[in-house]
Automatic annotation (TrEMBL):
Transmembrane residue ranges: 6-33, 54-73, 79-99, 135-157, 169-192, 204-221
UniProt organism field: Photobacterium sanguinicancri
Pfam families documented for this protein: DsbD_2
Domain called Urease accessory protein UreH-like transmembrane: residue spans: 7-214
Keywords: Membrane, Transmembrane, Transmembrane helix
InterPro entries: UreH-like_TM_dom
Protein name as annotated: Cytochrome biogenesis protein
Amino acid sequence: MSIDFYAAFVIGLMGAGHCLGMCGGVAAALTMGMPNQQKNNRWHYLLMYNLGRLLSYTIAGGIIGGAFAGVATLSGSSYALISLRLFASVMMIILALYLGQWWQGLVKIEKVGHILWKRIAPKANTFLPLKSPMAALPFGVLWGWLPCGLVYSTLSWAAVSGSLVSGSLVMLAFGLGTLPAMLVVGGLASQLKQLLSNLYFKRANALLLLGYGIHTGYIAINQIM
């Protein structure tokens, strides 16, 4: 499996604090707002909600990966794909700076998706309160399109993955990485939450991602030259 998949998983895992801030409240509200007789089934709700999120990420990765692979094939030129990989490396570096809490510029990128989200949010709210675990699936699918800098950064990797399948797998790996943080909201061990939120732990992984971003950019520049 490509290192991009592992890196995408790490992004999701290390973005725990961001995930808890963006979607954690939704997951908490989801379990608190369910019918009293369903409280014991909160894990079913959480799992279906997160399955919906992962489905959206996977679909988005496939669309982006397949579209850019098709454009590169039709153009018959590698420069477009190389330039996009260079852009992806810049996004990795910006993301690493964000995860390491050195620069918060990534937050500004999230504003790009608010136009689309204004149309999706009202539809997502129509599912509340959730009547059954199955209702949490489409709810999660819609919330998977919430504007998120982490998602946008990882989508740039999906774009240069080379195919629909690879793009889907990159985003699936990212989604799987977000699961621990999202399940912590549902009541997993607090020790896991503390580890994922530890500044030194986050910065160590941010440095690895930063190095990978620089290496990816170096390869792209060499291909252009």
